[in-house]
């Protein structure tokens, strides 16, 4: 049987609302701005000026309009407001992952800043995949976000970033090195990585390596490697051995095993982020190696959990929440047409934190005479390891 629908006029002369009876329940139609105007005894344009704070209005008029809004339970239609103002009050936030606490902290900093300014954040994680990144940016652009805060795989080659630039959408990079005519809240990766090389040398290490996500997935990793290699060269060390892995690599222990067999004199590893550094410590222990007795490890980012493990993690400390907030303030300045906030001093964008994972190498390994002993079961061939390895020169 079809549903009967009856319409009656409310006896409430103030609201004069239509009511609908549906299986015995009464559902009131949404209150409109016209209802507010009628209740307040003024025109629709006057209500709009008061609620949008877009023009002059008397104290008496404002009081009547606000009282009418409260009495009727009126709520703005965000869709209607967006159509009227050509804005959505939303910001696209694109980051590689939230598994790494650095990005989670940065997103929190950006979100808090946008919320205080009346904007909502739409978050997308790209899993370090340039294709997902491009699609995510296109999707957010189609949703007509008012701006972007984003970390891309490669700021010099990102198709998504180029589309934002071509559309002249307000945006700010986060952690990427800024190309020409771009702003980015980022760490001085090159100088920070050189400081890591200095730390290794100070402890007496002469043969070191670098472990990172594949450079095509992270221009930050590439810049850190370049700075690390420059720091090693400056200190008279050979070019660091390089091990690149996929973000979702499940066989890090096997990859590390082969890497160490290919570089028997290696006594220290610089991991491009703390997440990788902690995973490397776990893999080293699975191979029967002591950290730092057999292998010293330094990370990058300074996540809090690095201070809670044993040994504590030696690392480069950054302030991702501040970076996220700064990037958000930069986007808001473009939207509002106000001067952008000053970028942090590159020399103050990081600091080195000593930790128990860094110690002097034992004499026999420092001289390259004896490599760590790995059990036969942990000795896969290079063919099965699937690594990208650049030998020390």
UniProtKB/TrEMBL annotation:
Region spans: Disordered: 359-393
PROSITE patterns in the cross-refs: HTH_LACI_2
Protein species of origin: Roseovarius litorisediminis
Listed CDD domains: HTH_LacI
Domain annotation HTH lacI-type: ranges: 31-85
Protein name: HTH-type transcriptional regulator GntR
Keywords from the UniProt entry: DNA-binding, Transcription, Transcription regulation
GO molecular function: DNA-binding transcription factor activity; transcription cis-regulatory region binding
Family annotation (InterPro entries): HTH_LacI, Lambda_DNA-bd_dom_sf, Peripla_BP/Lac1_sug-bd_dom, Peripla_BP_I
Bilayer-crossing regions: none
């Amino acid at each position: 049987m079809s549903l009967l629908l009856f319409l009656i006029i409310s006896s409430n002369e103030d609201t004069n609302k239509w009511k609908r009876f549906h299986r015995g329940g009464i559902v009131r139609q949404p209150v409109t701005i016209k209802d507010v105007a009628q209740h307040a005894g003024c025109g629709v344009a006057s209500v709009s000026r008061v609620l949008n704070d877009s023009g002059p209005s008397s104290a008496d008029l404002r009081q009547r309009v606000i009282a009418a809004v409260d009495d009727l339970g009126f709520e703005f239609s965000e869709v209607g407001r967006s159509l009227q103002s050509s804005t959505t009050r939303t910001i696209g936030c694109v980051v590689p992952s939230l598994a790494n606490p650095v990005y989670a902290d940065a997103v929190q900093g950006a979100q808090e800043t946008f919320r205080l300014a009346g904007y909502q954040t739409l978050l997308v994680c790209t899993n370090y995949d340039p294709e997902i990144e491009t699609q995510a940016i296109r999707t957010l652009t189609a949703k007509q976000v008012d701006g972007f805060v984003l970390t891309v795989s490669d700021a010099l080659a990102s198709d998504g970033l180029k589309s934002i630039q071509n559309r002249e959408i307000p945006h700010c990079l986060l952690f990427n090195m800024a190309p020409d005519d771009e702003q980015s809240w980022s760490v001085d990766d090159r100088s920070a990585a050189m400081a890591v090389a200095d730390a290794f040398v100070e402890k007496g290490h002469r043969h070191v390596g670098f472990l990172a996500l594949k450079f095509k997935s992270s221009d930050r990793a590439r810049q850190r490697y370049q700075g690390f290699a420059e720091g090693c060269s400056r200190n008279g060390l050979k070019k660091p051995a390089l091990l690149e892995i996929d973000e979702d690599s499940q066989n890090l222990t096997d990859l590390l095993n082969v890497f160490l067999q290919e570089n028997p004199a290696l006594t220290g590893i610089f991991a491009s982020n703390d997440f990788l550094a902690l995973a490397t410590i776990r893999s080293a222990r699975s191979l029967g190696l002591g950290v730092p007795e057999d292998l010293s490890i330094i990370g990058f980012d300074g996540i809090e959990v690095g201070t809670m493990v044993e040994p504590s993690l030696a690392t480069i400390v950054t302030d991702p929440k501040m970076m996220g907030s700064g990037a958000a303030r930069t986007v808001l300045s473009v939207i509002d047409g106000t001067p952008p906030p000053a970028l942090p001093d590159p020399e103050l964008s990081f600091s080195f934190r000593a930790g128990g994972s860094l110690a002097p190498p034992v004499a026999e390994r420092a001289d390259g005479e004896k490599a760590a002993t790995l059990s036969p079961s942990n000795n896969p061939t290079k063919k099965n390891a699937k690594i990208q390895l650049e030998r020390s020169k």
